[in-house]
Amino acid sequence: MTAGTRPAAPASARLNPRPARRGSWQRRDSLLGYLFVAPSVLGALLLVIVPLGAVAWYSLHDWNALSGQFRFVGGENYAALAEDPTLRSSLLATVLFSVGIVVLNVALALLLAVLLNQKVRGSTFFRVLFFSPVVVSLVAWSIVWGFLLQNSGGINGLLSTVGIDGPNWLREGWSALLAVVVVQVFKNVGLNMVLFLAALQGVPEEMLEAARLDGAGAIRRFFSIALPLISPTLMLVSIITVVGSLETFALIDVLTAGGPGNSTNVLVYYFYQQAFRFNDFGYASAVAMLLFVIVLALTLLQWQTRRRWVHHER
C-alpha cells in the first residue's frame, strides 16, 4: 500500500448495507405511539376533563336557567350542602342502596358462578338465563317490575297463594328501598357472574386436585385456592359495582321517583331534581362535584387496599 492510499474497507462492511440511524427509528416509533393514544386522550379531554372542569366552575355560581341569572357566589353552594337536611337523607339512602347492591350483587354473582362452573347438564342454559337481563333495556326492565311490584301486582298475587299479605312495595319506605335494590341486582348480576365464571375457569385444575388428595374439602379448596386466585377479578367487580350503584338513575326515576319521602332519593337523583326540576344548576353542580369526590375516594380506597386481599399484588 502506497503513501496517501486509503485502506480498503473490510469485507463484512462491503457486504452489509449501512444501518439506518437509530434516532430516526425512535422518532417514528414515538410518533406512531402518540397517534395510537391520541383518540383516547382526545376523548378523555373532551368528554371527561372539560365537562368536569365546567361543572366545577358552574358550582361556584348561582345559575337559574329560567330567570337567566348567572352570578359568581364562590363557595356558597358548598356551604348550603352542609346545611341541607334533604341532602343528608339522600346520602343515607345512597349508602343503604349502594351497600345493598354491592353485597347482594357480588355474593350472588359469585355463588352463581361457582354453581355454573360445575360440569353438569343444562349449565349453558342457565348461563344464558341469568345473563339475559343484562342485554334487556333498563327502562323496559323497570316498567315491567313496576307492574309486578304494585299493590295488586304479580308479586303480591304470588304471595297471596301461600297466605302472605304483601306490602305495597313501592309506596312504603323500607320496602321501596328493598325493591329497587333487588330489581337492580337481578338486572346486573349476570355480568358479574360471567366475569367470575371466566376467572374460575382459569384456576389450575392441578392445584385443586392436589388439595383434594391432601384431604381438603370443597369449601376449603374454594376459600384457600380458588378465591385467592380470582381476587383480581373480585377487585374489578367490586369497583365496577360500587361505581355503578352510585350512578343508578333510570331505575329510581321509573319505579319510585325518589319516594316515598326521600327513602330512595339517592344522590344522583337528587342532583337531577335540583337541576331539571328546580332549575338550580349551580347548586346541582355542587351536588355533582360531591358525587364525583365520593366515587373517586371509594375507587382510590379500593385500589390502595388491594395489596391486602388481591393475591397477585402481595
From TrEMBL:
Transmembrane residue ranges: 31-58, 91-116, 128-148, 176-200, 221-246, 281-301
Subcellular location: Cell membrane
CDD domains in alphabetical order: TM_PBP2 (cd06261)
PROSITE patterns: ABC_TM1 (PS50928)
Pfam families: BPD_transp_1 (PF00528)
InterPro entries per the UniProt record, alphabetical: ABC_transporter_permease, MetI-like, MetI-like_sf
Start and end residues of each ABC transmembrane type-1 domain: 91-302
Region Disordered: start-end pairs: 1-22
Keywords on record: Cell membrane, Membrane, Transmembrane, Transmembrane helix, Transport
Superkingdom assignment: Bacteria
Membrane topology: Multi-pass membrane protein
PANTHER family for this protein: ABC TRANSPORTER PERMEASE PROTEIN (PTHR30193), INNER MEMBRANE ABC TRANSPORTER PERMEASE PROTEIN YCJO (PTHR30193:SF37)
Family assignment from sequence similarity: Belongs to the binding-protein-dependent transport system permease family.
Protein name per its UniProtKB record: Carbohydrate ABC transporter permease
Provenance organism: Brachybacterium tyrofermentans
Lineage: Bacteria, Bacillati, Actinomycetota, Actinomycetes, Micrococcales
